[in-house]
Amino acid sequence: MNPIIDLLKQHRSIRKFTAEPLPAEVINTLIEAGQAAATSSFIQACTVIQIQNPDTRAQLAECSGHQAYVASAPVFLVFCADMHRHQLACDLHQADMLSGFTEQFLTASLDCGLFAQNLVIAAESLGLGAVYIGGLRNQIERVSELLELPELVYPVFGLCLGYPDQNPEVKPRLPVSVVLKQERYSDQDDRAAIQAYDEEVRTYYRQRTGNNKEMSWSEQISGMLVKEARPHMLPFLQKKGFLRR
């Protein structure tokens, strides 16, 4: 329909990068593109930490489940939901900040997602590739200690950036009919649509260039959702000052 929509629909996770470095001015431009994203009530609650120290990178790769590209990608960023600076803003006006609200956790976390997606789109427009690293939350307390994060700051995910050294196929998404509803929620036709989509995903996994497997989307999701999902997150977040009320 237009180059921007074409770019969005061609998104792939890139896990192999060339050794070509990214100049600081490119990284700064990408950060500015991220900052241009919508932000709830102008809260601007995303902080990005660039990690260049090889030892720290290696430890973060270990924390994320030994994902080697965390250590080797030309650029590695950690996106943090940050309500700490808002405490500073309140201090400037001798105001007693009320924190710990679930709404604050949601808005800060959403700010990170919107910021990061803007940044990734900007990066892809420059010929770069990226992959999100949610695996940092496997050992989130250790990550927080490594990055010396204060209260009211938590690492939401990481991001590897660089010039692609691979050309993976685009992974098929759910049918629009499953995700777009009219007027009210209805799943009347979703079962049949998901079953048809399962075959499309199974074919994709079977035929893709690397890491072939025999699996459908619903098989993958059902296998994932019978396991605990990082139960350590709630006590960690509460310790950091989030989700207390």
Q: Could you say what the CATH topology of the largest domain is called?
A: NADH Oxidase
Helical proportion?
A: 40-55%
The CATH homologous superfamily of the largest domain is named NADH Oxidase
Please trace the helix and strand order, writing H or E for each element.
HHEHHEHHEHEHHHH
The chain-level mean pLDDT equals 97
SS elements, strand count = 4
Beta fraction of the residues?
A: 5-15%
If helices are DSSP runs of H or I spanning 4 or more residues, what is the number of helices?
Answer: 11
| Number of domain modules | 2
Q: Give the overall silhouette.
A: globular
Keywords, separated by commas or semicolons:
11 helices, NADH Oxidase, 245 residues, EC 1.5.1.38, alpha+beta, 4 strands, 45% helix, single chain, four-stranded antiparallel β-sheet, 2 domains
Explain what you see.
The model has no long low-confidence stretch (mean pLDDT 97). The longest helix has 24 residues, at 102-125. This protein has 11 helices and 4 strands; from the N terminus they run ααβααβααβαβαααα. The protein is an alpha+beta fold. 45% of the residues lie in helices and 11% in strands. The chain has 2 domains: 3-168, NADH Oxidase (3-Layer(aba) Sandwich); 171-227, no CATH class. A 4-stranded antiparallel β-sheet has the order 1-2-4-3, with helices on both faces.
Break the fold down into its secondary structure elements and pairings.
Blueprint lengths: L2 H7 L14 H12 L10 E5 L3 H10 L4 H5 L2 E8 L1 H9 L9 H24 L3 E5 L6 H7 L6 E10 L13 H4 L10 H18 L9 H8 L8 H7 L6
Antiparallel strand pairs: 1-2, 2-4, 3-4
Helix pairs in contact: 2-6, 3-7
